[in-house]
């Protein structure tokens, strides 16, 4: 009996876990075009959600802290005692990282309107969690933004590349 | 004060987005998202002047926007940043030489117009 033999099904599970956690080279599982697609969509969704949720948590935290803008510089550090603000800042870092990744393979004129979807998500969050009143003009605005996002989503992220090289 | 903060926020935000976009497109597509690779990329980007100045400009934009919210209503501050979106698209065409087709122009205008409606 070999000293390090593992049951086959456990090995499979371990390799899957390594892939999911990003420790294994994912190119072995998902290759080329598929991987590009997945990372593109992941970054788009992550950028939109992290931006919206980050700003949302930040504003919740700032309201709790009753922050005075004219306060002494040390007062600025005091806001990090609030867990909502910490979570918000962390999410904004996630947003910035995914925005940068997205810009490494997409045009700015593609990324900007797409991340405009966060305005829609903000309005929905306000409606659902803060029970804010959403007026007719607000709904109309949400509709117009969504239309703009849908129009841009249909274009190639990097317009300079040939049609075969782009991520749909 | 209000107008100063507004102009500062829009200009630094526009500069920040353009500079980071230029830096990232110079860097090239990121393929590897494993921890080691990400740390390497972060180290390389921290020596990229476009990324460093762009990130600083974004920070200036963020803090001046927060300060703007302290002295002005949300319904005044948000549409102003939406106008920044159109400016960024124009500059992306001019300076980054991006191919902005009619769908992207329409998208940028619709999103900005929608933000105006939402904040009304």
Topology of helices and strands:
The complex is a heterodimer of chains A (168) and B (120).
Chain A: H1 8-20, H2 32-65, H3 73-78, H4 83-105, H5 108-115, H6 117-129, H7 136-153
Chain B: H1 2-27, H2 35-45, H3 49-71, H4 74-94, H5 102-118
Helix pairs in contact in B: 1-3, 1-4, 4-5
Question: How would you sum up this structure, described in words?
Answer:
The complex is a heterodimer of chains A (168) and B (120). Chain A has 7 helices and no strands. Chain A is mainly alpha-helical and 168 residues long. Chain B is built from 5 helices and no strands. Classes of the chains: A mainly alpha (168), B mainly alpha (120). Chains A and B meet through α4, α5 and α7 of A and α1, α3, α4 and α5 of B.
Please supply descriptive tags for the structure shown above.
heterodimer, A: 168 residues, mainly alpha, 7 helices, globular, B: 120 residues, 82% helix, 0% strand
What integer value in Å does the Rg of chain A equal? 21 Å
SSE ordering of chain B: HHHHH
Q: How large is the count of helical segments of chain B?
A: 5
Runs of chain A in which pLDDT lies below 50 for 5 or more consecutive residues are 1-22, 24-28, 161-168
Tell how many strands the DSSP assignment of chain A holds.
Answer: 0
| Integer tally of domains of chain A | 1
Tell me the strand percentage band of chain A: under 5%
Biggest interface and which pair forms it?
Answer: A-B, 43 and 46 residues
Helical proportion of chain B, percent range: over 70%
Average the pLDDT over all residues of chain B and give the rounded result. Answer: 90
* Cα-based radius of gyration of chain B, to the nearest Å: 16 Å
Query: What sort of overall outline of chain A do the alpha carbons produce when their principal axes are compared?
Result: globular
Proportion of β residues of chain B? under 5%
Please count the beta strands of chain B (DSSP E, at least 2 residues each): 0
Structural class call of chain A reads mainly alpha
Order of H and E elements of chain A: HHHHHHH
Largest sheet of chain A: none
First-residue to last-residue Cα separation of chain A: 51 Å
The first-to-last residue Cα distance of chain B is 22 Å
Poorly predicted regions of chain B: none
- Apparent shape of chain B: globular
């Amino acid at each position: 009996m070999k000293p390090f033999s593992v049951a086959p099904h456990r090995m499979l599970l371990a390799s899957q876990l390594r892939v999911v956690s990003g420790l294994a080279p994912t190119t072995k599982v998902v290759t080329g075009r598929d991987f590009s697609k997945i990372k593109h969509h992941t970054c788009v969704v992550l950028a939109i959600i992290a931006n919206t949720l980050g700003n949302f948590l930040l504003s919740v935290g700032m309201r709790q802290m009753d922050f005075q803008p004219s306060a002494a510089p040390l007062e600025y550090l005091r806001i990090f005692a609030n867990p909502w603000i910490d979570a918000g800042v962390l999410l904004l870092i996630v947003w910035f990282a995914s925005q940068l990744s997205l810009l490494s393979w997409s045009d700015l004129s593609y990324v900007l309107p797409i991340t405009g979807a966060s305005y829609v998500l903000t309005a929905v969050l306000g409606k659902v969690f803060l029970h804010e009143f959403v007026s007719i003009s607000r709904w109309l605005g949400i509709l117009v933004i969504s239309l703009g996002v849908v129009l841009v989503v249909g274009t190639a992220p990097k317009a300079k590349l040939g049609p075969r090289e782009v991520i749909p | 004060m209000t107008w100063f903060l507004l102009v500062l926020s829009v200009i630094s935000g526009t500069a920040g987005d353009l500079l980071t976009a230029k830096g990232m497109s110079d860097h090239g597509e990121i393929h590897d998202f494993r921890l080691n690779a990400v740390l390497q990329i972060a180290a390389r980007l921290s020596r990229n002047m476009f990324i460093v100045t762009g990130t600083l400009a974004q920070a200036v934009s963020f803090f001046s926007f927060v300060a703007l919210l302290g002295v002005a209503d949300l319904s005044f501050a948000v549409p102003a940043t939406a106008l920044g979106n159109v400016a960024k698209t124009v500059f992306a065409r001019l300076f980054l030489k991006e191919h902005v087709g009619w769908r992207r122009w329409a998208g940028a205008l619709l999103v900005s117009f929608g933000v105006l409606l939402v904040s009304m």
